[in-house]
Amino acid sequence: MEASSSSSPAGPAPGPPPSIPPSGDQGVWADVSPLIAAACADLQDGELVHGENFSLFAAMSALEIMDPKMDSGIERSGYYSIDEAIEDGIAPVPLSLDRTLDIQRTLDVIDHLFSCEATWHKGHTLAQTVFTCIYLMKMERISSHAVLNSFCRILRATCNSVISVVSTARTHEEEDLFTMSFGLPLNGEGDDKCLSVLNSVEETISRQLRACKSQALSKKKTLEEFESLQDNPELEEGYCRALLCRLRFRKHFHHVVTCMRKPQGRGLDLARKHVTSCLAELSSMLKSQEFLKSQSDITSQKGDESCTTASGCRPIGFDVSLNSRLLSPAPPRAVQILAWSDAIRYFEKLLHDLDIICALSLDPVLENVLHFIAQFQKSVPDLVPRAFLQTLLVQDGKLYGRDLFCDVISRALSLPDIIGDKEFQSNEFVVQLGQLVTNLLKILCTNTAWQRRKLGKSLQDWSTISIQLELALKREFGETRNVLADENMCMRVSKQLLVWSQEHTYWIASRFLILGFELDLYSPSEYCMVYWYMHVVFIKLIEKMQLRILASNENSRRKGKKKKDHSKDSVRDTPFPSSCLLLQCYVLLSEGLSMLLAALRKESKSFQSPSIFNTEQERFMQHFDLLQKAQIPECITYYSFKEAAAQAHMADVMKYNFFKEIQKIIPSLKGSFASEPEKLAELRQIEQVAEHNRIALNIINHVGASDPKLRVSFEFTHHPHFAVAVVKRS
Q: What spans are recorded as compositionally biased (Low complexity) (predicted)?
């Protein structure tokens, strides 16, 4: 070791330790103990002994030895090996020679594993959660313990299946820790028969429970004919119930995972039935808590909110540091296992999310699929349900594993005649758009932060293909852009592909902007520019949507009898759907809020937060750089925003009264969305935002925006993306 240090020895150097091997062919060993001793005596805080080739850049990827946060081998609080832990009696089999205590401890192990599984789902590693259980690590030791063996076996099989789903979907978190098995024994011999083993144990306990409930049998006869779980007949029924609901939950949850993995959504209906059963068993598990607490010798000292078992007892057979040395790819983490009550709530939400996925109609209409994902993400689903959703949507490069994405696109273009057409399927632009749609569905299934970042990056690809389509259209057919009665199929398809790709580009841009609110990326001083940009994007989105609808209606007319001049009045006669009117509400809300904020900035000098770190133009680019690079929309820059903001006046905001216009549109939309509760809820939120902002606008106008006593703030009390003005006087 070569090192540089200005330190000098504080005392006589100790002799070389006997562990240094003699010199050999491999090189010469040198004793550095004197240097280390001298450095320890002389170095101050923040100083470092380092080699000549050491740099700060190298320090970024270095592991600091002897630092508990970075050195996984420094902790000596646990055992170095499983065998050492077993020899010390930490995981006895049976769990106790007292049969009643044995069943109590078995239930504690099952409950703690339940909490560990929920903690793993929330993003921690298997090695530090589920596989801190020594019984799971050495399954052969518990082969004689029927209950624990059957439970651990099906738990291991379920974990393996969940890892497979998440790995396939690739929706796991940034550090990829969820799917890392660290060489743990996830595949065991006989795991394929885990259900039959569990069913056998369940049937035995069920017979015992029926015997306990039977009034015709005496206690003596019950004990003789059926092998009891433990020795106290008065407690037998309570323990039978507590065990059965846990074993049945594990069985049904394994069925849910298995059924949802079936190709083309074939197992979704059956999975829903098992989800219902799982929720029922979770309810029974909660009911058993009171009984288990009453049999516990320990009063809850830590409080129910931190206990990982229903009884409140600490489980045996676990060691948190057992697998810490397997975590070499990452520094060790301090893992807080979820409380048992929190784990119950997690699985309830997980099952409700999975039930929503199972209820999906497998409709091949892309617009409906995108709407479903956007609605599903509003509930902030965790990693596992998002992975199941993605594997359902995209299988073997097809939607639901059944529909080619080129056929999905042809349906979106309202051109059923070309479904299955080989020439259309092999078209270069159609192939590229199919890949973009596939990637879009995968992106929408990621967590909110990843989703926004990836959507922003994908905008460049969508914008590029739109430009390429437009250039190809001009090259082949000239500048004509309107729908003509005598145009050929190729020209019509090219035009509709262009409009369709542009519409989805602006849809992605709008979602990119909206997700910024969910991630709290915008400060109040930036709301004005954000709502202005949203207003511009929504207008473009409506424009492209209307063009697509016109083209679709034109295709429908062509199928019927041809009439003279049928295309002349197509725009005038086309009834645009409610989705366009809903978008119009978003346009009015965005424009109204941006103009209100701009007028307040101008007349009351509020919502201006000059920063010493960056200018407003730099913040504009930080938020919208990805949109600007993709030229979405074209010719929109920071100076466009400044010009629009400079022209805003409170009198104009009152004159146009965007919020009042929204209230005129809402009643007709309520009738259109009468059968869609999610959209009705959205309308109610929009209506509340419009009403509160209309009242606030009237107050500001009456008092005067320049009144120094006027205080205006914006809160998201009624809608997650559109703010409400709150007016106060100091």
A: 1-10
